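Quick note —
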Amino acid sequence: MRFGFALACVWLLVSATASAEPAPQLRLVSEHAVDGMRGGNLSGLAQCGQELWTISDRDDDQIYRLDTRAEPWQAEAVRIDVPPVPDSGLPLGLSSRTWAASFVRGGDLDFEGITCDSAGNRYIVSESHAAVLQVTPQGAASWLKISPMLVREARASGMLLRFNALFEGLAINPEGNALWLAAERESRGLLLIKRQQTVWDCDGRCVLLSEAGLEMQPAQFPRARAVSRDFADLSLFNGKLFTLERNAFQICRRDALTAKVERCWSYADEALQEQRRYPQAYGLAEALVVNADGAWIGIDNNFGVRADGEVRPIVWRFAAPEGGWGAKP
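Predicted structure written out below.
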């Protein structure tokens, strides 16, 4: 009886997703291979002024400025001296698994997202430690002092419970005093903290959204199946929060204070063309920047070889949708 009820719940979740009106498709403008990343595994993008910056989840001691003047793009390493990581309140079991995994995969800090404020400070989220590193324009690195309520509330809401499924992306407002974080999956979620003198804390509640369940991969995906809902990155543009929803191959615009979905756009038609497919059975987009002209999406291929033989990380440029990102359905 319980098994039948569980199957019915899964069917309802998947059916609801499948019956939703298809999201309009974004148009691919350009595609750029990236050379020079020591650890490969491009896992975040940020636009700071006119420059694009990226990170690798295998590199703890450097971030990258992208030279986009010629093809392929060149990743120029910028060294950072990272101080010891503060205790974020994650349980010992998760921390121990992270420590053990770092010997196999490399990268104890597991950098998974990067963003910038208007002053040029870069903020980088460490998934493995649920912590945020600030790097000033001069290169000084320090960890934000974040209230333990962040992790406590996230876990109480069903997030940050699984190894390698913690914070996957972040976005900051131009003033540098409000920070959004994305919990990756099982359950995925969105959280908001604000700077209060020297400590970053919840403004009321930290959790804007906690969401479990499954959704169907797009029809363009070979042997599409129901997979966990997830977030892979965030971008803040014109006061709206944009979520990169990797398994659904879409970008969604959300209210920045309630996390309510306002509209979504798909990039499946372009990303899943035969020559661009990877052998992995899930989406590989990990990085997002949204601006007035369009969106940058970065691919972390985990050294996997694409159908056309490309093995380097890829950055796609998509045009803004007709009517702009603020367009109503």
